[in-house]
């Protein structure tokens, strides 16, 4: 019998910084490289569907090639950060099955055999699974940033967990570029209230509380500071993963303050 694969939301950090040994990313790098192994058994999963914040489309778009080059969608970093390789295979058959599943759920989608894997995929995956031996399907978020549609997408993805396919969301639980520039190293957490809200709804025993809380997330105190209006693409993968979580509560598996200022949280759903 195939073990139920988990749904996990991870923070991927700034550009390639977790791969470059950046001290401000040390806690995040350690989690992705070492600690996540406590929660994700790579020997048990048959593939990974990875929802990335760095791919926004007007309909859900699914990478469907046998192989995808890397898409270096960041600027101004050292030359070595544009030479990375990550040769995990794609899986056209799984991509086609995913599209059919979304069609049946009433979710518009399309296949894309050409777009490269962006850094929302390869930065965390180079740390999580450097062997690059597990097939990956990269999935976009929607540019409408509608929380209800993203939760519905997650509900559809849940079925693949039963087949041993892990569902990963790659984004940031806090992502405010202006504050990253202006408030670094304040040594005072600027988003505690919003992070507390995330933990409360993601670990709720009642799925209705999780769903209602995340769909109405924009009205929560601190939401606009954590993810400014029309710039919530890094939050959408978390909503998708919560939708894929099934009926049970999530567990916070990562809670760390970047630069002592920006609190980041990661979550896993393991049960039915």
UniProtKB/TrEMBL annotation:
**Which ranges carry the Extradiol ring-cleavage dioxygenase class III enzyme subunit B domain?**
28-247
The cofactor required is: Zn(2+)
Instruction: Say which domain of life the source belongs to.
Output: Eukaryota
InterPro entries reported in the protein's UniProt record: Extradiol_dOase_DODA, Xdiol_dOase_suB
Instruction: Identify the stretch annotated as signal peptide in this record.
Output: none
Q: Which UniProt keywords apply?
A: Dioxygenase, Metal-binding, Oxidoreductase, Zinc
Any single GO molecular-function term of the entry would be: oxidoreductase activity, acting on single donors with incorporation of molecular oxygen, incorporation of two atoms of oxygen
Q: What family is this?
A: Belongs to the DODA-type extradiol aromatic ring-opening dioxygenase family.
- For this entry, the protein name equals 4,5-DOPA dioxygenase extradiol-like protein
This protein's species is Papilio xuthus
